[in-house]
Amino acid sequence: MRLNFAACLTGALALASLVAPIGVAAADEFTPAQKQELGAFVRDYLVNNPDVLRAAIDALDKHDKQVADAERQKMVSDHAAALFSSNFQATVGNPKGTATLVEFFDYNCHFCKGALPDVTRLMKDDPNLKLVLKDYPVLGPGSVEAAQVASAARNQLPGDRFWQFHSKLLSMHGPIGKAEAMGVARELGLDMDRLAKDMESPEVTAGLEEVMGMADALQINGTPSFVVGQEVVVGAVGYDPLKEKIDAVHKCGHSVC
Q: Is the pTM of this model over 0.85?
């Protein structure tokens, strides 16, 4: 689809350069023979100047990314309350920090596990960082089960105490499901009867549904994904790019000053 659009765009530019000198008023005034000749010209032009087509495709890709980024930024603003201050989220770090990093993650996500040291370091290096953790269980039933346990565990592990649970579970090797999450909860001394009861509460389902809807609105389809300022950052991009954006939010309120 992009290739055809770019070809049409390039063809239109070539058409304009061809017909302008001879004063043709409208395309429907061409005769069939002229249209055939023009088509041959456009084809030969593109064959002999492939860089023009490549430049058009690159420009279209850049335009599409800009449009998608603008749409995401609007969605971040529209969903700011649920995104940054939901009753269903885990908040660690400095709850009154001057910059907030939101992470959408899955406990079975290999790249989320790889990003854990970067997120840990960001919190350690920045006492004014608020970290919001969004369970986004997209990798199967085990991920959903782990997210349900984690959501219920927050009732007994407020604030930074939840980080112990989160980091222990996320750093585990192998598939993670209910058994693994319950094991970490037991290791941390949680009331297991209360945990089992809380897992059945409507709030757990409502919280996971809220995150799913938010991810759809922000066009997030993979983990980890981050929100910093009004920008959505997809993928485990590493410590330095996230730190740069967080520092910018501290400075000017946006991920880029």
A: no
